[in-house]
Amino acid sequence: MINEITLLESCWHISPAWGQAMPPLAVQMLEKVFLSSSDLSGYCCGVHWEGQEWVYAIVCHGKILYLSSKEFYSRNIFKNAAVPTSAFQLGDMVEVDFSQQPTRRIIQGIFRLKSNWLYGVDWCSPILEEAALTQSRLIWLADVDLVRVRV
């Protein structure tokens, strides 16, 4: 008899949450944005997939706001900062050592915290709805915790 949980954990990563083609981002990292509801501006410092859309982390007056693309607009201006290149991109397949046997996941979020990059991957299957109701299914990991999978 096949252990259904092990089978589920080993194969659900193959189809990313957004389907076959990753939807385009409304803004890039460190791009300046203006909030639609006010005269405030900020910079994009992260993005992750939640529900059926990208959610953007916008730094505005020292606070991080999590907004959909409908709540701001881009000005195609980038923050002038020396930023190290991220090790992984959205949609990259990586191995994560969650258990005795490394499991494959897809990068579904990226976040810049000071000079460090964090990457969001699912820690549990999207089919397990009860976990999704209590907390996010994404776990944020550093690049040292991930290994790129050659497809």
Describe this entry's structure for a reader.
The protein is mainly β and 151 residues long. The chain has a domain at 84-148: Roll (SH3 type barrels). The chain has two helices and eleven strands; from the N terminus they run H-E-E-E-E-E-E-E-E-E-H-E-E. Strands 1, 2, 3, 4, 5, 8, 9 and 10 form an eight-stranded antiparallel β-sheet that branches. A three-stranded antiparallel β-sheet has the order 7-6-11. The relative contact order is 0.18. The model has no long low-confidence stretch (mean pLDDT 82). This is DUF1392 domain-containing protein.
Quick description:
With 151 residues, this protein is mainly β. The protein is built from two helices and eleven strands, in the order αβββββββββαββ. This is DUF1392 domain-containing protein.
